[in-house]
């Protein structure tokens, strides 16, 4: 087995999963925009719904990126703390 399959820090998402995510995102956004276009309402209501959809999508993407970045930062901090602890313990074991 290669190192990428045994090391959880290297393991990433499969190409099938990424395709599924992108297809789901594009499909849902397209259907939402088409649905708004065919609503039997005035143009200004459609504009409001379009704007709300785009802002909601942008804020969702920003939130998910921020949560991922925070998680990666916390993992890095924990790895550094664990390395320091291991260093102190190894020095303690030598004495």
UniProtKB/TrEMBL annotation:
Classification via Pfam families: YiaAB (PF05360)
Keyword Transit peptide: no
InterPro entries the UniProt entry points to: YiaA-like, YiaAB
One BP term from GO: DNA damage response
Membrane spanning residue stretches: 20-39
Keyword Transmembrane: yes
Keywords of this entry: Membrane, Transmembrane, Transmembrane helix
Gene Ontology CC entries for this record: plasma membrane
Sequence ranges assigned to domain YiaAB two helix in this UniProt record: 17-69
PANTHER family in the record: INNER MEMBRANE PROTEIN YIAA, INNER MEMBRANE PROTEIN YIAA-RELATED
Protein name as catalogued: YiaAB two helix domain-containing protein
Source organism: Deinococcus detaillensis
